[in-house]
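User: My advisor asked me to double-check a structure prediction for Transcriptional attenuator, LytR family before group meeting. I don't want to rely on an old file, so could you generate it fresh from this sequence?
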Amino acid sequence: MKKKKHAKFKKGSLILAAQFIASLLIMFTSLKIAFLPWFYQLLLAVLLILLSGLVHKIIYPKKKEKRKAFRQLTGIILSLVLSFFLVISSSYLNVANTALSGMAKSDPTANYRTYVIDGSYNSIGKLQGQTVGLLTLGDEAEHTKAKQIIKNKLHCETEDYDTVLDMLSSLRRGEIQAVFINDAYKTVCANNYTGWNRNAYCVDKISFTYDEEDTPSTNKNISKNAFTVLISGVDSRKSVTETCRSDVNMLVTIQPETHQILMTSIPRDYYVSLSNAQGHKDKLCHAALFGTYTLQKTLINTLDINIDFYARVSFTSLTRIVDLIGGVKIYSDKTFVPWTDRGITIKKGWQTMNGRYALAFSRERKTYTNGDSHRAANQQAVLKAIIEKMSSSPLLIKKYPEIMKALSTSIQTNMSSDQMKQLLRLEIASHPSWDIMSTVLEGNSKRMLGGYLMPHTSLYYMIPDENSIDEHRQYIQNMINGQKISVN
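Assistant: Sure, here is a fresh prediction for Transcriptional attenuator, LytR family from the sequence you gave:
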């Protein structure tokens, strides 16, 4: 009889020990990743202690209590269920933390090639000890890393140039033997050097990452201070780091004090001065070919505002995310067959769109009279629907790991994981009801020559409306200053 009691006692002790370990695991994980505000951390600790005490009391009831065996069995089952739940919760928290780390403070990637026009340097090895030209345009950190790489590889001299034309003139005169340039400048070289595509030889190519310089926003507490983030949706087919145009250009201003979010879309065809082109103008979407830094700097100069962060998003991954969350509810003001996907028809009215439909809807412009502006409004509608679905549907918990994995491989940002956790803690602590507003900068479409990348090709551009820029700048500035705003 004593052996039987001892066996039951031992079994109960082992199960309680497992629950204790699971409780320690969830507490350690929660403290390590710092998702919860301190008050909720304290509540979690108290709850775990109370649950441990409750289960202990059920498994080891007073001697005189009836149905002791049934209570012990109930306590054991309850303890096992709690332990399983705590372990799964710890796993989910780690998945979220890994995803945030994958997105946060991602080092930008640059794709470079070495070109020559003299056939005697037809391999990279023959450039040893020669002079190679580099451009100082764009991100200084990228230029510094590029110079370091080419010097280490070739033990060569380097010459810096402020313009593409000056660099190519030196190459033509033989003052430098090669140029080491970002892939984005290939078209610019072809426009500034007659016969470039025929006479220039690529003898080497390389991709590298580089550390961005810290800015005043690096240590900003975004749970207390308003901030603006640039959403750059790129039409990449392989990776979010792929060199490509930015089809979505949206400024999202978040004011945690007034609980307002303003989405300001800038049409992709906006005719603006590129920050790396000495005043030359082109479509805004072309700025992204030179990197997100150039796109961000171009918008800062155009709108005369501060942009704290950027988030580069693989727009085609939208299909996977929308499908994972079970589709999004969107309103279309007309029935049309999308020009980017002729195999589907989007009908007028409210409807639940899957990923394929949502992507086509957000890329459509030819259906609308004011195509580029209407497309920007559609993109805002899709983003808003995704945010609302992900923040309100409890059914998404079972898809949580897949959603977080999809987000981590689709977003590249200079916001730190600590800053993203600040927003999460704000959401958990106060669960504010966000007032989400959207607006689009205006302009007038015009077909003309003269764009920086394709100066001899007649293309449609949108000439910015300066009054619209002034109006939207004021919206953003008022939000940053803590004022509650409304948009027209």
